[in-house]
Amino acid sequence: MQAIAVDPNVAVGTLYCHYATKADLIAAVLEDSAEHIASLAEAGQQAVAAGAEPGLELASVLHKIAALSAESQALRAVAQSLGVVVQTRGQDVPPSPGSPLARTFAAFDSIVDAACTAGSLGPDVTRRDLSVLLHGVFELQLDACSRDRYVDLVLAALAPPKA
User: Fold this and answer.
1) Domain that holds residue 130
2) Domain-embedded: residue 154
3) What pTM did the predictor assign?
4) Cα–Cα distance for residue pair 36/107, rounded to 1 Å
């Protein structure tokens, strides 16, 4: 905590006033990260509602989230080492209503439904399908080119067959 306080020129007492423990600080950083991802997904949903092509918007949001994956991995590892419980995509427990994860899921459901309707994805593709197929992109240490390639491959594989 002392090292963190020195970097932004914040007194360590101020840091401890807001975050009593390292775990509290990491939990706040994780919440901020989850909020950022929810905001990206909701911005994509709003763009689709405003007339953006759903398949392109879905790809854009997925690429942005994939770019954040290395940071997210590091945050989760630190959190787990400090005993902070981290809810992730793969868990079957529904997220709390209004939480960043619930908002992310709702936004993705909307974008994926629109992409299916527009013919960018097969008619039966779901958010869960994308989550399962992109799990490696979000969990492995990949360079930017590889992340982008795998996101594009998954989206191409889920597109309806060409006539």
Assistant:
1) 23-158
2) yes
3) 0.77
4) 13
Count of structural domains within the chain: 1
Q: How far apart are CA 110 and CA 153, in angstroms?
A: 21
Residue 91, SS3 per DSSP: coil
CATH of the domain at 125: 1.10.357
143 token code pair: 């360079």
Q: Report if residue 79 sits inside a domain.
A: yes
Q: What token pair was written down for 115? A: 């992409």
Residue 87 belongs to some domain of the structure: yes
- Give per-residue pLDDT as tens, 127-162: 989 988 888 888 777 888 998 999 999 999 999 988
Residue 81 pLDDT exceeds 70? no
